[in-house]
């Protein structure tokens, strides 16, 4: 076994490093007379060349996140069905697991942007529920392109307004009454707004389902003071019906630390 692989296999961050190793050796081991390629961890471990075994998973995620989010050609270039979609693919993987397990009949999404994520959730829900719907809410309507897609026309309903506006909530209620609901919060990320959204939408969540609060920070060193984290903490302090499901953060590089809230009672 490659000695580097033997040192990192088993850690949550092994995926990133292993992929880098594979990419640097696409056809197997380099020829004996070929120049030695730069080791992938030379770029992510500090200049002191700390052995990889001594670097924490959190630090590895931090260094990877620097590269990932500082280059517009990476994260911001993401598309779903041709629509720009600001979603971390690792969180998308976790979300599809939740959708499969919960089998929601309705997914409420706050923060539509261009509509790419609504199409993404709709394409997953389509495989789970024959009649499942995405109800997506935003104060701006930027969905012109996404709304032309046949999947949008069948499965997505857009609501133009604030997610905390009682008038918007009243429009949603008849569509979710008696349904298994999953909620994804991705609108304004201030503590006050996130707390208000949680207080409104948590009442629609059945036991075993989730409210997913997105963009609470990308690993701890990236956590900004004005994220929804404080709103989550205030919400959880007032209820024992929801718990943070840390098992959903197993990939380490998540945009939603502390944001996978499961209803337990």
CATH architecture label name of the largest domain:
3-Layer(aba) Sandwich
What is the CA-CA span between the terminal residues? 47 Å
Question: What about the largest sheet?
Answer: 7 strands, mixed
- Residue windows where pLDDT falls under 50 for at least 5 positions: 1-34
Provide the domain count: 2
What is the CATH fold-level name of the largest domain? Rossmann fold
CATH class of the largest domain: Alpha Beta
Instruction: Report the helical percentage.
Output: 25-40%
Fold and architecture overview:
With 265 residues, the chain is α/β, with parallel strands linked by helices. The protein folds into two domains: 3-55, no CATH class; 80-263, Vaccinia Virus protein VP39 (Rossmann fold). Helices cover 35% and strands 14% of the residues. Strand 3, helix 5 and strand 4 (133-138) form a beta-alpha-beta unit. Helix 8 packs across helix 9. Residues 1-34 have low confidence and may be disordered.
């Amino acid at each position: 076994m490659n000695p580097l692989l033997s040192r990192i296999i088993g850690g949550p961050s092994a995926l990133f490093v292993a992929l880098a190793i594979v990419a640097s050796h696409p056809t197997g081991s380099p020829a004996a007379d070929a120049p030695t390629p730069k080791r992938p961890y030379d770029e992510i471990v500090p200049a002191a060349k700390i052995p990889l075994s001594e670097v924490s998973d959190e630090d590895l995620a931090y260094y990877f996140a620097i590269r990932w989010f500082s280059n517009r050609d990476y994260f911001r270039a993401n598309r779903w069905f041709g629509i720009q979609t600001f979603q971390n693919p690792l969180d998308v993987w976790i979300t599809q697991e939740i959708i499969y397990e919960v089998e929601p009949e309705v997914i409420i999404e706050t923060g539509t942007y261009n509509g790419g994520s609504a199409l993404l959730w709709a394409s997953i829900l389509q495989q789970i529920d024959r009649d499942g719907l995405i109800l997506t809410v935003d104060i701006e309507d930027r969905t012109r392109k996404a709304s032309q897609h046949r999947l949008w026309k069948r499965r997505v309903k857009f609501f133009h307004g604030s997610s905390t506006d009682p008038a918007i909530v009243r429009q949603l209620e008849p569509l979710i009454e008696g349904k298994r609901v999953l909620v994804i919060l991705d609108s304004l990320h201030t503590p006050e707004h996130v707390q208000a959204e949680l207080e409104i939408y948590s009442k629609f969540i059945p036991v075993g389902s989730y409210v997913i609060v997105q963009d609470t920070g990308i690993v701890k060193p990236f956590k900004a003071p004005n994220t929804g984290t404080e709103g989550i903490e205030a919400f959880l302090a007032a209820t024992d019906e929801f718990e943070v499901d840390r098992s959903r953060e197993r990939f380490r590089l998540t945009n939603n630390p502390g944001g996978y809230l499961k209803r337990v009672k």
